[in-house]
């Protein structure tokens, strides 16, 4: 990483620390697992129709996996979009982007720093959710062995390792959504439009996945890749959906970042 990019990246991270959207997203990432754990502790029911739902009262290690299933609908796309859709558009709105682009730092360095800051936020959000879910779940349901999707039972320690691995796999579509949000933020120049546009794009892909007659597209939709982590919870592990998720997410994410960079490089500073 070039020194200019590193310095600009640190500056972008400092700016994120003072933005309400950052704390709103990270707050939601931490609060939702707590609310879910409290609901588990106070209610006898369980979501039988989702993977690991029947085990949430047996082991707290089932709770992170249930949250991954529910969070893919709107929670994690929205959390990712809050910063990704704002990181360039907010500068446009506040009139500070013109000042940044007229400094000695290169535009590619500014863009790279913003992209890295967006990715850092997404990583922090998913890590925070996973950590809080494990802790809160273990408090209410215990740190006990976990049944897998294949019917076998694994130790709590191994289950904890698989929670970490599942979060890493889950991060791939999260970063792809963040890349789409970065593109919208660069193109729309409006934070609200970029955030809503990113969320709507995510919901649209989910809708396409359930429409009759379009089943053949489902393996290649970004929304489907949120399920790839389940391959780790089979014995033996099924790596096929994880490998597919890697290249499918890349097909969504890389073109979005490249397009955002091209728009950013052509930005008319004088024109605003």
Describe what this molecule looks like in 3D.
The protein has 272 residues and is mainly α. It is 67% helix and 1% strand. It is built from 10 helices and 2 strands. It has helices spanning 3-16, 20-42, 62-71, 75-84, 89-94, 97-101, 107-141, 156-188, 191-210, 240-265; strands spanning 146-147, 153-154. The protein has a two-stranded antiparallel sheet with strand order 1-2. Strand 1 and strand 2 (153-154) form a beta hairpin. Helix 2 runs antiparallel to helix 4 (75-84), helix 3 (62-71) packs across helix 7 and helix 4 runs antiparallel to helix 9. It is globular and about 60 Å long. The relative contact order is 0.15. The model has no long low-confidence stretch (mean pLDDT 88).
Which properties best describe this structure?
272 residues, mainly alpha, 67% helix
Tell me the distance between the termini. Answer: 29 Å
Task: Give the DSSP E fraction (strand runs of 2 or more residues).
Answer: under 5%
The H/E string reads HHHHHHHEEHHH
Spatial extent as radius of gyration: 20 Å
Give the overall form.
globular
Physical arrangement of strands within the biggest beta sheet: 1-2
Largest beta-sheet characterization = 2 strands, antiparallel
Q: How many helices in DSSP terms?
A: 10
Total strand count, please? 2
Structural class: mainly alpha
Q: Give the rounded overall mean pLDDT.
A: 88
Which percent bin holds the helix content?
A: 55-70%
